[in-house]
Amino acid sequence: MSGERILVVDDERDNRELLQEALQEEGYEVETAPDGSKALELIRRRHFHVVLSDLIMPEMSGVELLKAMREIDPFLVGIIFTGYASIESAVEAIKVGAYDYVAKPFQLDEIKLVLKRALEFQRLNYENIHLRRQLKAKYKFENIISDHEKMLEIFQLVEKIADTDSTVLIYGESGTGKELIARAIHYNSYRQDKPLIPINCGAIPAELLESELFG
To answer: How many Å separate Cα 128 from the centre of its chain?
Structure first.
């Protein structure tokens, strides 16, 4: 049993019941809503992993629902399905954060596969966020321990330059914490969501260094 909670939103009862039964057989917890307003009420009260929504519904479209639900839960994954498939509607759904777009009439196996991929995408996203938080916490200035006067001056300097666009040269003997300071600068800057790529220049032949770094 997987236990992930899925919300199916469709103004057609037959479709809601079909998807609910099929997904419950796969081990998912499934709730349904006949329109976007009812769906948002449920989303405010309970945590869902994925929302499967029709695109064309009375009062609120699937795209409008996607926009509203992501304001409530930015990590909630949305999948849109509709019988009015077009490139324009697909692009619009993806732009507002839909994980995927499925055209009616769909096969249940297709929905199950897309749902499985969406949950894996969400899991990896959660892991990525958790890892970034761990790295940021690890390299907070207060976690670099030293009571030496010179090191305290370095910490103050690092804090000042972390959010600038300046090029920083860190030099010192082996084992003095140069990479630790570099990571502290990176994870306390606005670039913290971008990769930090350490390169051992000593291991690269001088004649290849320029091409390795600059192409």
So the answer is: 7
Domain definitions of the chain by residue range? 5-134, 139-214
For residue 2 the two structure tokens come to 């997987």
Identical fold for domains 5-134 and 139-214, yes or no, is: yes
Q: What is the CATH number of domain 139-214?
A: 3.40.50.300
CATH class, 5-134 region: alpha beta
Q: How far is CA 65 from CA 51, 74, 93, in A?
A: 10, 13, 10
The residues that bridge with 30 in the sheet, in sequence order, are 6
Tally: H helices and E strands in the chain: 8, 5
Alpha helices in the chain (DSSP H): 13-25, 36-45, 62-72, 87-95, 108-138, 149-161, 178-187, 206-214
pTM over 0.70: no
Separation between Cα atoms, residue 32 and residue 11, nearest integer Å: 10
Q: What is the pLDDT along the chain (215 residues), one digit of tens a residue?
A: 467 999 999 999 999 999 999 999 999 999 999 999 999 999 999 999 999 999 888 889 898 999 999 899 888 899 988 776 566 777 777 777 788 888 888 889 999 999 999 988 888 776 766 666 665 655 555 555 555 667 667 777 877 887 788 888 888 887 777 877 888 788 777 787 788 787 777 777 877 777 777 76
* Antiparallel, parallel or unpaired: β 50-54 and 5-9: parallel
